[in-house]
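Q: Structure tokens for this one, please.
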Amino acid sequence: ILGKEIDKIATQREQVFLPDNLMSAFQSASLHQHKIAVSKTVLLNGEIDSSNTNLNLIFWSITLLLVILCVLLFIDSRKLHTSLSTLFLFITGFLGVLLILCYFTDNDTTYYNFNLLWAMPLNLLAVALALRKPKLYGLYLKGFGIYLVCLVPIFFFLPQKMNTGLYVWCVLLGIYLWGASKKLSNQGNTPL
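A: Here is the predicted structure, written as tokens:
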């Protein structure tokens, strides 16, 4: 999620510097028939957890929430749809600002980050439109929803590997935002 350079798969040369690989390399390394590392000391003995249960739980929870939100599109509540769409725009806008802040660090590997395609800082400005300009806000919701759905096929051609959960998330959020814009535009400019 931090960018193209950080998310890439490590080459064999780079993998040598991973802690476990480095330890086994030193165990077998020798100089003039003498071992470089005479003994090994394990500082932290642990098992590698490859199940990613916490990440899967978070992903499926958010997906379930978005499915529920898509079902909520059948409810005609202006306040509900304005609040939820504003919340999602705020979250994606805030994540976009955090990603932009990575550009101002000394770490140049975070520069090429294609997550800014879906986590747009511009969404924070759209949050301000929610109460002031409801028609313009509805148009932004519709446009951003369509944009998110159309963005998913583009993910396959990006040089940065995106999380597969992001595909489902973008489609569901896009559908919800598009549907919420329809609900908000059908109810006109009535106050919340």
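A few notes: The first strand starts at residue 30 and ends at 31. The radius of gyration is 23 Å.
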